[in-house]
Amino acid sequence: MGSTGDDNTAVAQDNLVIPLIDFSLFLHGSPEEKLATAQSIVKGFKEAGFIYLKNHGLPKQTVAQVFDESAKFFDRPKEQKMSLAWTTPQSNRGYVAYGREKVLDENDKEAIAKIRVANPDLKESMEIGREGVPECPNNWPDRFDAQGETFKSVMQSFYLKCHGLQMEVMRSMALGLGLQQGFFDEYVNVGENNLRLLHYPAVEKSVFVKNKGQVRAGEHSDYGSITLLFQDDRGGLQVLSPNGTFIDATPIPDTIVVNAGDLMARWSNDTIKSTKHRVVEPPVDGEGTVHPARYSVAYFCNPNYDKLIEAIPGTYEQEGKKYKAVNAAEYLFGRLAATY
C-alpha cells in the first residue's frame, strides 16, 4: 500500500503507519514548525522505524542522474566490474557480484552461507565509501574510459550531498528527542558512510515459481544509525508490521525513505525501532515471462568510527541502560563480516 490519500501518511496498513514528512519545515520553517517536524520524525522512528521525507533538499535531477549513471555502470562487462571487487568489511568498497551478499536477520556466518547457496539474493551492488582514506580507496571505473570518470564525479558529489542531509536528519532527531539540535554533530561529522548502488537484474518469473523462498533481498534490519533509500518506480520494498506481516512501502515520487538501523536502536536504548524489511519482486502487468530490472540507491549512515556509542541522555534514566557501550567501528565491521 502506498499513498493513503492523507498528506501526512505514506503507508497505513496492519497497524503499520509510516508518516510522510515535509522536511522543508525543519530546514526552513519557524522555530515552532522546526520543533513540530522534529517531533514527528522521532515519533515515526519510535513507532514504525521508517519515515518518508519530501522536500528534502536533494534536487530531482541530481537523483535521476545518479540512477542513470548507476544503470550504465552495471551494464559494463563482468570482467571490468569484477576488477573493482569488494574485498574486506573494513574497506566496504567496490563491486559485489550477483548472489554474493546475503542480507538476513542472522549473525551466524555458516548459517548465512548455507542460505546463500539455497536462496541467493538476486542483486548486484557497487559500494562507495568516504574519499580520502588512503588504506581504503574507492574502486572507481575511471581507469576504463570517460564514462567511468563521469560516474566517479557524479557519485563523489552525491555522497557529499547525502552526508549533508544525514547531518540535518540527525539534528532533527536530536531536537525531537529533547536534546540540543547539534548533539549528534560530533558523532557524524566525518561521514563514515556507505553509498550503495543496487541493481536487481531482470529475472525469469519461473525462478520465483520454482522457489517460493526466493526474494530480491532477504528479511533484515540495517546495521548503522539511519539509511536514506531512493527507490525507482518499480518498488518491491516491504516493511514488517507490528502484526508480523510484510507491507508494501510503495514508492512516492520525489521522496526518500529513511529508516533507523540497529545501532540507532541501541544508541536510543531501544526507544527508536530498527524494523525488519525485505525486497520482493513486485507483480508484473501483462503476460510476459520476465520480471524487469529494478534499481535503487541506499546511503547507509554510521557514526564516526572512533566514537563510543552508549545510551543517549533521556532514554535510560527510568529503566537503565540496556546495552554496554560499544565502539562504532568494531560493531559495524563485525556485522558486515557475517554478511559477506
Polypeptide structure, described:
This protein is 33% helix and 21% strand. By secondary structure, it is of the alpha+beta class. The longest helix has 31 residues, at 146-176. The protein is globular and about 55 Å long. The protein starts with 8 loop residues before the first strand and ends with a helix. Mean pLDDT is 88; it is low at 1-5 and 111-119.
In short:
Helix content is about 35%, strand content about 20%. The protein is built from 10 helices and 17 strands.
> Would you list the SSEs in sequence order as H and E?
EEHHEHHEHEHHEEHEEEEEHEEEEEH
Lateral strand order in the biggest sheet: 1-2-3-12-9-15-6-5-4
Overall geometry comes to globular
Provide the residue-averaged pLDDT: 88
- Our measurement of the CA-to-CA distance between the termini, rounded to an integer number of angstroms, reads 32 Å
Tags for this model:
9-stranded mixed sheet, alpha+beta, about 350 residues, 4-stranded antiparallel sheet, globular, 10 helices
Layout of strands and helices, then pairs:
Layout: E1 9-13, E2 16-22, H1 24-28, H2 31-47, E3 50-54, H3 60-74, H4 78-82, E4 94-96, H5 109-118, E5 124-128, H6 146-176, H7 185-188, E6 194-200, E7 203-204, H8 205-210, E8 217-220, E9 226-231, E10 237-240, E11 246-248, E12 256-260, H9 262-267, E13 277-279, E14 290-291, E15 294-301, E16 308-309, E17 326-327, H10 328-339
Parallel strand pairs: 2-3
Antiparallel strand pairs: 1-2, 3-12, 4-5, 5-6, 6-15, 7-14, 8-13, 9-12, 9-15, 10-11, 10-13, 16-17
